Amino acid sequence: MYTQSLSIPDGEAKGPRKVENPDYLAEFNAKIDAGGFIEPKDWMPEAYRKTLIRQISQHAHSEIVGMLPEGNWITRAPSLKRKAILLAKVQDEGGHGLYLYAAAETLGVSRDELYEALLSGKAKYSSIFNYPTLNWADIGVIGWLVDGAAIMNQIPLCKCSYGPYARAMIRVCKEESFHQRQGYDLLLQMMKGTEEQREMVQDAVNRWWWPSIMMFGPHDKDSVHTDSARWGIKRISNDDLRQKFVDATVKQAEVLGVSLPDPALKWNEARGHYDFGAIDWDEFWSVVGGNGQCNVDRLAARQKAWDDGAWVREAAIAHAEKHSVRQQQAA
Ligand code: BYC
């Protein structure tokens, strides 16, 4: 998407932009302070570039690993309508992965390098996708809570300082909004159904609530990438986003008729926010460290997709080479 239109001569793009220069840095900081966008051809500090590659690629990995828990239910959707919606949603997630990989590539890293980091376990992806989808209500709850949390985190990224990432986020957020609504709609339907269906919804909410609020990352005091805020990448902190999400979701749970599994969840008049219970950070770090219920399966599925796709990559390269030879012959 972005990479195709770049065509920066190697010397110009990679050489000078790596040199740390106080004048370039002043110009860069001024642009960030004025709320402007940094574009791929602009000079940027090496640490900014690395932080962006880390976050954008982790985000891309989350999208394509995130296809798996829901993709697992496409063949078991209870109606044609729900199947079509789920199919469209999972395809959207694949598309988000593509925009994000393309945005990361504008920073001078190759898709192969990024993928290798995912498959070797070096790169992270969102903790949430290491939990299993056990019943159909999980699909609704993923839309409502997981996509809901993702939108809360991604809306501020539409104004982040790196142009290709910010622009990708605008479309992603529009699609996430549809994802969130389809999930909530699915759950509303189930809540109007039988007692057993209502129990399925409550069971799914009980299992996904805590992992969803963990998605925002560690408490601010334990968040290590503080430069991200200074550079206008992260515009709202992990804890502030988590609080916004909790505040918005409590009312939605009431309308739905489910309870959220936290006895400490209570409106705090003085703060103007809901208080909530302690997060189990041991569980979070264990899942992030590869020991969640599904980490091994998720990486195995992505590895298989990579291996199965080898012939497509080879065919695309052969096709491009054939065209390039023809163009040279015609010139
Ligand atoms: N899971 O200093 P911190 C979707 C890591 S997909 C795993 O606060 P940062 C969807 C963090 O990477 C949406 N790791 O980091 C798809 C760091 O480790 P490293 C995914 C996590 O970057 C399909 C360490 O903890 N969204 O919506 O400032 C179907 C310290 O954290 C997590 C994005 O990727 C986690 N949850 O802030 C349905 C959004 N949290 O890198 C839905 C873009 C933290 O030093 N990313 N860590 O090894 C971000 O906004 C930020 O990267 C985060 C973390 C807020 C996630």
UniProtKB/TrEMBL annotation:
Alphabetical list of InterPro entries matching this protein: Aromatic_CoA_ox/epox, Ferritin-like, Ferritin-like_SF, PaaA, PaaA_PaaC
Species for this entry: Parazoarcus communis SWub3 = DSM 12120
Query: What is the name of the protein in this document?
Result: 1,2-phenylacetyl-CoA epoxidase subunit A
Q: Might you name a Gene Ontology BP term for this protein?
A: phenylacetate catabolic process
**One of the record's GO cellular component terms:** cytosol
Q: Which Gene3D superfamilies match?
A: 1.20.1260.10
Q: Which GO terms describe its molecular function?
A: phenylacetyl-CoA 1,2-epoxidase activity
